[in-house]
Specification:
Helix content is 27%, strand content 28%. The protein is α/β, with parallel strands linked by helices. The strands form 4 sheets. Strands 1, 2, 9, 10, 11, 12, 13, 20 and 21 form a 9-stranded mixed beta sheet that branches. Strands 14, 16, 17, 18 and 19 form a 5-stranded antiparallel beta sheet that branches.
Length: 368
C-alpha cells in the first residue's frame, strides 16, 4: 500500500530540521525521514559548533549570503528559544610576516559580503585579548560565536513537531521515482513503506548526491559528484588558556587547525583535512604530531602531552581535492525540471550558521 503525504524531508540534520520547521510552521504536512536512530548523527554533530560571521566566502555566493542572513536569524532564535550559545568573538592571526597581507585581506572580503565589523589588531592588542597567542598582526571578528548544536537541533525538531511534523528514524530512502502524481519514495528500515509525496526535500548531507541518483526521472547529468573530507579534533587538557576562538590564516576551503571553545570552556583544536573514499569516523592517532606543529605556530606554549584525541567529522564535498571549492548547491524545479523537488548538495560549513536562511530559501523555492 502506498501512503500519500504532502511533504517529505530526507535527513534530520540541522539543515533538514530547519527546513522541516519552516515548512511545518507554514502549514505544510511534513514527514522527516532519517536513516539513523537519532537526529544529527553525522556532520551536524561532528563539527566546530561555531556561529560564523561570514568572513571567507566570495561576494555573491550562496555561502556568503546565507551565512550573513543565517547568523542574524540564529542569534535571535537562540535568544528567544533559550538555545545555549555565546557571542565570544574570534581573532584570525598572522603568526609570520608573510601571512599579514592574507589576514588583512579578510576585512575587504567580509565587507563585500556584508560583514562590516572586522578590525585590525596589532601584536599588543592580541596579547591583551589572548596572552598566550603570538601574532605579528591579526583581525578581530566580534560577531563570531559558539553554539550547542544538539540543543539547536532539538529546538528545531520541537518547533516542527509542535506544528504537526513527524520524525521517523531508521527509515533510509532506498530509491525514488518521479511520477505524474508526485514523487514516489521507497523507504527501508524496520517497517518498509512506499510514500507518494507532493514535495520532497533531499537534505541528506553526506548522502544527498546518492539519494538524488536513486530517484528515477532526475537527469543524472545534472547531479554533482560526492566526495568526503575528513577532519580530526583534539581536546586540550588542563586549564583553558583562551577566552575566544583563534584561527590561523586559511588555505583554500580549509581554515586551518584553529581553537574552538565549547560552552563549558573546553578547548578543542581542529579540524585538519584528509580526503577519504567513504564515511569512516575512525580516529587516526598518527596525526597528533602535525597538530602540535600547526598549533605551536600561534600558541608556542602548548606543552607536550596535553592534546587528547577528541572526535572526527566528515564534510560533504561536491568538488574534488585540488579543485576550486564549490558553493552550496540548492537545486529546485527550475534547475532539474521536477516539480516539488529540492536537492541540497555540499552543505558543509557554514551550513549550521546558515540553517534558518537556507530553510527560508527552500520554502520560497517551493512556493514559487
Amino acid at each position: 500500500m502506498t501512503d500519500r503525504i504532502d511533504c517529505a524531508v530526507i535527513g534530520a540534520g540541522v539543515v533538514g530540521l530547519a527546513i522541516a520547521r519552516e515548512l511545518a510552521l507554514a502549514g505544510r504536512e511534513v514527514l522527516i525521514l532519517e536513516a539513523e536512530s537519532g537526529i544529527g548523527e553525522h556532520t551536524s554533530s561532528r563539527n566546530s559548533e561555531v556561529i560564523h560571521a561570514g568572513i571567507y566566502y566570495p561576494k555573491g555566493s550562496l555561502k556568503a549570503r546565507l551565512c550573513v542572513e543565517g547568523k542574524q536569524l540564529l542569534y535571535a532564535y537562540c535568544a528567544e528559544h533559550g538555545v545555549p550559545h555565546a557571542n565570544c568573538g574570534k581573532i584570525i592571526v598572522a603568526s609570520r610576516p608573510e601571512e599579514s597581507d592574507a589576514v588583512l585581506s579578510y576585512i575587504p572580503t567580509a565587507a563585500a559580503a556584508g560583514v562590516h565589523d572586522l578590525r585590525r589588531l596589532d601584536p599588543a592588542e592580541v596579547r591583551d585579548m589572548e596572552p598566550d597567542v603570538v601574532a605579528v598582526t591579526a583581525v578581530l571578528s566580534p560577531s563570531t560565536g559558539i553554539i550547542d548544536s544538539h540543543a539547536l537541533m532539538l529546538a528545531y525538531q520541537g518547533d516542527a513537531e509542535n506544528a504537526g511534523a513527524m520524525t521517523v528514524f531508521r527509515s533510509p530512502v532506498l530509491s525514488g521515482e518521479v511520477t505524474a502524481d508526485g514523487i514516489l519514495l521507497r523507504v527501508g528500515g524496520d517497517e518498509p513503506m512506499e510514500i507518494l509525496c507532493n514535495t520532497v526535500v533531499n537534505s541528506a548531507g553526506l548522502f544527498a548526491p546518492a539519494v538524488a541518483r536513486s530517484i528515477a526521472g532526475l537527469d543524472p547529468q545534472k547531479l554533482p559528484g560526492q566526495y568526503y573530507a575528513k577532519a580530526h579534533y583534539f581536546t586540550l587538557s588542563g586549564k583553558p588558556p583562551f577566552r575566544r576562538l583563534v584561527y590561523p590564516v586559511g588555505h583554500g576551503s580549509w581554515l586551518g587547525v584553529h581553537v574552538t571553545i565549547d560552552l563549558g570552556g573546553q578547548v578543542r583544536f581542529g579540524p585538519d583535512i584528509e580526503w577519504v573514499d567513504s564515511v569512516d569516523y575512525a580516529f587516526d592517532h598518527s596525526r597528533e604530531p602535525l597538530f602540535y606543529e600547526a598549533i605551536r605556530r600561534y600558541y608556542p606554549g602548548l606543552k607536550d602531552g596535553t592534546l587528547q584525541p577528541g572526535y572526527t567529522g566528515i564534510r560533504p564535498k561536491i568538488s574534488r581535492k585540488g579543485e576550486t571549492p564549490a558553493d552550496f548547491r540548492i537545486d529546485g524545479p527550475a534547475d532539474h525540471g521536477v516539480p516539488g523537488l529540492v536537492n541540497l548538495y555540499g552543505i558543509e560549513s557554514p551550513g549550521l550558521t546558515a540553517s534558518m536562511a537556507i530553510a527560508r530559501d527552500v520554502a520560497k523555492m517551493l512556493h514559487s
